[in-house]
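W.,

You were right to be curious about this one. When I first looked at the sequence I had no strong expectations either way, so I just let the prediction run and decided to look at it fresh. Below is the sequence, 355 residues in total, followed by the output.
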Amino acid sequence: MNKKVGIILINYKDYAARFLEACRDSLRAQDYPAELTKIYIVDNASTLETEKYLHDIYPEVIVLTRSDGNYAAANNLGFYRAMQDGCEYLVTANMDTVMASAWLSELVKALNDNLEAGIAQSKILLFPRTEEEKKSPRLNSLGNIIHFLGFGFTSGYGEPDRQVAGYPEIKGYASGCSFIIRAEIFKTIGGYSEEFYMYHDDLELSLKVRLAGHKIILAPQSIIFHKYEFSRSVRMLYYMERNRYLTILIYYPNRLFWLILPPLLAMDLVMLAYSLVAGWSKEKLRIWQYFLRHENFEKARLVREGVNKYKVINFSDIANDFAGRIEFQEIANPLLRYIGNPLMAGYWKLIKKII
């Protein structure tokens, strides 16, 4: 049975000018019934010029505006509006993507055929930029992985595309590049935690879905091509590091927190050294200042209490699926490969026996 679906795209500054036309054309070519599809663009950090551009280039969509650039809040705005409009399934997709024609219908099918699943992620491929890459596309994500120190990274990144049977369970988290979620589950878990602002927002949302007792699955026939560009911007590093610690503070049981504290402190020293070399030590100081403010601990406590109201799964059961190694080609280096990963993997193997 087909459901009414709301698709949420987020624009940020010049993002639409760079990417929307190709994304729009692939959305218009979907084989899912158009009368059951509503598309929303949240113009994040909006200006009158960008709002007019969106209406001109994509007149059939609903444009919602925000001014502060908060990505998690922008998603909430789009998702809750879609629910008000009667959408039973909610989809988030990056604007720097091109979707195969069955992308949406396969996402819907994944939830229809798997009642225990709360989220289904598309198979995300790197957008082919050469004729050779078109013939042999490579993976961006088959589902994302959570490291026990709060890092998140993709599964299968850079590997050749391959056939995947069925609907394998994703034991980490669904990539925010493209996933579908049931509206009633999104409402139950309270949507995105807006304090996360950007980065790790998909990891945090997925943790809440799993704690509420729902699976996350891969919809391998739902194909989307991502114009992925890895960035090491100072802003990105600040939010990724801050939100990594925020995830631990909100979700990790006290016992697990104390058990991982030694490698957590060691990693913090490594990140401090890296920040000094890379020139973002001021951002590292901002992270420490954030966690020294009482009101931020109070925000984390309130989120934690909210999760406890619907939680039916012990966090330790989810933590058993966390990785001990960081396996991501974009940040691979000999120190991580030959020293950091073996030490972390050995320590996590020991901790898993305790928890």
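Here's what jumped out at me. The chain has a mean pLDDT of 92. And, maybe more interesting for your project: The chain has two domains: 5-226, 234-354.

Coffee later to discuss?

I.
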